[in-house]
Amino acid sequence: MNRLSQQTSPYLLQHANNPVDWYPWGEEALTKAKTENKPILVSIGYSACHWCHVMERECFEKEDISAVMNQHFVCIKVDREERPDVDAVYMDAVQAMGVRGGWPLNVFLLPDSKPFYGVTYLPPQNWVQLLKSINDAYNKHYKELVDSADGFVRNMVASETEKYGLVNSVNPHSLEELDLMFEKLKQHFDTQKGGMDRAPKFPMPSIYKFLLRYYDISQNPEALAHLELSLNRIALGGIYDHAGGGWARYSVDDEWFIPHFEKMLYDNAQLLSIYAEAYSLTQNPLYSARIMETIHWLKNEMLSPDGGFYSALDADSEGIEGKYYIWTEEELKDTLKNDFEWFSKLYNISKRGNWEHGYNHLHLTNYADETAKAAGIFDEQFSGRYQDALYRLSKRRETRIKPGLDDKILASWNGLLIKGLTDCYRALGDDAIRELAVQTADFIFNKMSADGKLWHSYKAGKPTITAFLEDYAAVIEAYAGLYQVTFNEAWLERASQLADYTIAQFYDETEGFFYFTDASGESLIARKKELFDNVIPASNSIMAHNLYILGKMLDREVYLNLSENMLSKMNKILIADVQWVTNWAALYCLKTVPTAEIAIVGEDADAMRKDFDRFFIPNKIVMGTKTSSDLPLLQNRSDTDAKTAVYVCYDKTCQLPVTTVEAALDQLASI
């Protein structure tokens, strides 16, 4: 057992029994490398990573391979989810080397932590050969390695504004530029299968967030068509767990058929938001069903007794990727009995398997009812029989060995989930969803906050690791959203306090963006800024949204100016290649037309808000009180003849109060 046995990270603990003399990232390992003048091997991964497990089995569990690693290197294991700062620095370096990034990420460093070479997964023979080659180069060509490492570090510490040519735009926000962004994005649409024209296919929620807002402004039918096609295929395909609820991380093919089976909290949190907004727009019952099924899965399998949500479920069980989720024909026959024949036609089940090695995976390309009609198996009892069959499969699965659970709790991902739950509550009006969002936020505030600051990770009753920008950005967004569905001003005050702390500790006044790390946190060889949206939006783009929304709600000009400056500097990239900055593009939508400021005052404020929130109005803030409030939008507002009043405002200029949601919607439509 090595030093990782003392860690709390599930990923590090997975490697605690390796014969590799692993160290966690920290001063002990870094000092050892300098003292002994040995190169450092940093191996980065996460607990649900399939290829991380494969490389562990093939390499890190082998005595002979471990002996080579221990002899020539100081070996450090890093959980990328616990230390996204370390991962970002060395991922950037490896990509600068021309290596396609991914995990496991294995990076070789000089004793001063500067990177000089990196790879992802390698099979055993190649790995051993690389270790020996690196050792030989370190001993015989040290000067060349130093020169190479210095070059990579210069690239890493280069100014983002210089690297990408970011300057403030002089053009006002316009629908014409939004149309141009959409046309650029459309070039990469898969118009047959949904999503983008590449494989593997990732859900990429911020793309659909942009399409929802762009459609709201433009009413461009192409945007709605691709949105619905994509969301339908993501909801019906194999990336969704038909028997148990929740989405896997991505599809390895371009059909949304076979997923990389790990389930990540951040994907499901964001997809809840997207499907909630899409349901408000379309009223598609498939979307509401997926929302409720996913929340049910989250509560049953991902909710900790302390009140936060765990991070991930592994792709593997019993050493086989996806084994928990796939079926042989015999297993399905044994479980479904008389219902097997029609079910097998619905899902194209066969003895040979619809996937590989005789296994079948549940996957649809059209609504279940429509697929059943096309297969000639539909009748009036179909819906009930279908749901019962899926339920029996879920119960059968519970007898299997479950995938590993990554039971650390991350502030950032829980913040994304709180936002997802508030959006679901607004769309569906189920008070239990709002209660779950409040409980999760209470956990973050009570267990992962101290002295106005956040912690990044929580495990075994203890918070650890100084929070990153992603934590502050996601939790601020969560608190602001929670205020808008509860009218509890404590959440808005907490959001504002965290925003002020973030500006003080993370903001770079020279470049106008936020660093990823706290000024009081650990210093690495580079202090990075996260600007580009990925499977999770960039922490800077989330912060720009937050500052805009809080600026409107609290009448804080400094927030609004910071947000506008950030978005303005991204304008060049928005126009050139929007697919990598779609969360920024979603913010651009909000600033292209006036944001509705809705103030609700009176005894029935919460009920009125609940009724109002059913409608798809993405470009709005909602504030309210039963009595009175000192918040800017609510000051000097009152009910009307003892009836709850709704004030529809733009730029702090309000129309006459009305006492029905219908009248307020008419006022919105007239703008």
What does this 3D model show about the protein?
It is a single chain. With 671 residues, the chain is of the alpha+beta class. 51% of the residues lie in helices and 12% in strands. A hairpin with a 5-residue loop joins β4 and β5. The longest helix has 18 residues, at 265-282.
> Which segments are poorly predicted (pLDDT under 50) over 5 or more consecutive residues?
none
Shape by Cα distribution: globular
Distance between the termini: 67 Å
Strand content: 5-15%
Largest sheet: 5 strands, mixed
Tell me the strand order in the biggest sheet.
1-3-2-4-5
Structural class: alpha+beta
Q: Compute the number of strand runs.
A: 22
Radius of gyration based on Cα positions: 26 Å
Helix content: 40-55%
Averaged pLDDT: 95
Number of distinct helices:
27
Could you write a compact summary of the structure shown?
This protein has about 675 residues and is an alpha+beta fold. It has 27 helices and 22 strands. Helix 12 (about 265-280) runs parallel beside helix 18 (about 410-430).
Name some characteristics of this structure.
single chain; 671 residues; alpha+beta; five-stranded mixed sheet; 27 helices; 12% strand; globular
